[in-house]
Amino acid sequence: MSVREIRRAATDVLTTAGVETPDVDATLLLAHVVGRTVGELVLVDDLTDDQLSRFHELVRRRATREPLQHIVGRVQFGSVEVEVGPGVFIPRMETELLWSWGCEVLAAVADPVVADLCSGSGALALALADSVAGSTVHAVELDPDALTWLRRNVSHLPQRVRDRVVVHQGDVRDPRILAGVSADLVVANPPYIPIGADLPVEVAEHDPVLALFGGDDGMSVITPMIETIARVLVPGGAVAIEHDDTTGALVMAALDTSGDFEGISQMKDLSGRARFVSARRAKMKP
Ligand SMILES: C[S@@+](CC[C@H](N)C(=O)[O-])C[C@H]1O[C@@H](n2cnc3c(N)ncnc32)[C@H](O)[C@@H]1O
User: Fold this and answer.
1) Which residue, of 37, 199, 212, 286, is most buried by count of CB atoms within 10 Å of its CB?
2) Whole-angstrom distance, CA of residue 227 vs CA of residue 223
3) Mean pLDDT computed over every residue of the chain
4) Residue whose CA is closest, atom 4 of ligand 1?
């Protein structure tokens, strides 16, 4: 069989298994097995027996709906790559919007301080630390399993970035968390899915429950976390909170109700989908 036929057969297996993007996944698994980029696959005209049996094994795992990212063990996020696996939330491409927005916000701030609340693998924290020169980034995470991944990812950073990331184990709703920290930017991708939402197998069975659900309305972490954000941000400092498709108005209302924020805005992606809410710490209580 040619490499093309091998890939097509794998795509068929993944299609039958209900994988959402079977062709992409088959291609990425093949690239992983041969140690090439997707673009370089055109240069590969044969697989060794070992590569072929590894590829079949990985396709078999993907066909059980094990996430592709767990199989290859890593995810590219913004300017960094993070390791992921069981026990930690897989960073999503849409969250890169918070990273790029954060980089823009900080462009005019010298040596900024950032807090990443609900940090998981550390994707946002690490990408911001890597992209924003002179920044210090505080990453807060509650789950001990996720913290293990977070600390491992920090340890793999080049030292010039690693030295500027501070990991905190704790609850973002705790009034003592980040005591003494004054941040120019807070980003948060908290658990926000309303309980009962229908989820793909990859998410329901492999992302940690603590990473996913935000109570009946998706707000059980976000609402109390807002007090922490108001306490930590300097006057004029910026915040971005990712949310469920259905809860943008609730997040805006929660920020508004606190009375501590201004310029509360619904931010959308290029397809017009509401992704996160941004705001600035009010300079004085209105
Ligand atoms: C949706 S994941 C996001 C992870 C990461 N920021 C990202 O974008 O990939 C939410 C994370 O929040 C953590 N978490 C949940 N409740 C928390 C809390 N009360 N305090 C701190 N972290 C919490 C979960 O363990 C999980 O790692």
Assistant:
1) 212
2) 8
3) 96
4) 120
